[in-house]
Amino acid sequence: MGETRKLNGRYRLLNPLGTGSVRLAFDEREHRDVAVRELRVPPELRDAALSEARRATGLRHAYVVRVLDVLVEDGVPWLVMEFVSGASLEQTVRAHRPLPVPQAARIGVCLLGALTAAHEAGIVHGRVDPGNVLLTTTGRAMLTGFGFPSLSMLPSADLWSLAATLHFAVEGRPPGQVPARGADPFRSLLRAMLHPAGPPPMEVVRETLDRLAVDRPLDAVVAASGPLPPAEVAAIGLAVIDRLAAWGEFHGGIQPGNVLIDFSGRARLTPLLRSGTLPAYTAPEGAPTQAADLWSLGATLFTAVEGRPPAPGAPLTRAGALAPVLFRLLSGDPVERPTLDELRRDLLAIVAERA
Q: Which CATH fold topology does 86-214 show?
């Protein structure tokens, strides 16, 4: 293929981009760089593929690499796509190392936005993978690969592939038969999205990715900054019980990794995503009750104020006014633990002392 060849008398073919089949081209009509790729499909599927590709030209989203034109040259169909400068997620991870969770979550936010727009337009991508995710120099993640036949896949297949792609981002490998272990919310979310029973509700996926993109888990905050002041820990407890009251049912996963702290210090409990609770934060009776959640909350607040999980006979040296509350929450007898209303009253009093 010569350097001076033009497609449709307009797109001058230049050099290959990366190691794939995409080539850089110059659109002489619009005076812009574009990317072009041959649409290779069996002859019997060509008409359907062209129709699907032309439908993709109507998809517009900030995180979608647009399909600008679909043409046939000498009987060969081609896609003309927006040129985006950047490296693929696959190249980035293989050349350097797996990404930190906040960066991977930000990528997930971008990709989920792109897929949501596509699905609302009746378009299934069908090929979400690390090679089709471009990381731009401005920090955006953009999804390319639209315009190819989706092989009649359902939107849920795109969500599974999104989870597998994000798994590669943080683990450096596809999930295979054994997705990454770990009680942190991000890996819990990935396992839930990869589960044979299907992904969690879209709003849960979106909310969790949004939070993880900007917030830090409580265990990471304590590890970085040390034990927190009792009044600050009491405020975290108030935020958690507000979420528990709103849900009105057993959570089963209250632990520091599932409590996210934003830049202003406000806390938010993530939904449970089939992850279970770590042993150090599991109530001794092991029952799926609100009282068991409160024991787990007590263990979480103990860790926040003391810098370590509770253990039999472990002293409270930093808890101050929070100590009596923790003793009640961590009682081995569920009946002796406070109700949500009692706990809210006690925590509010501790927060008010700081004010």
A: Transferase(Phosphotransferase); domain 1 (1.10.510)
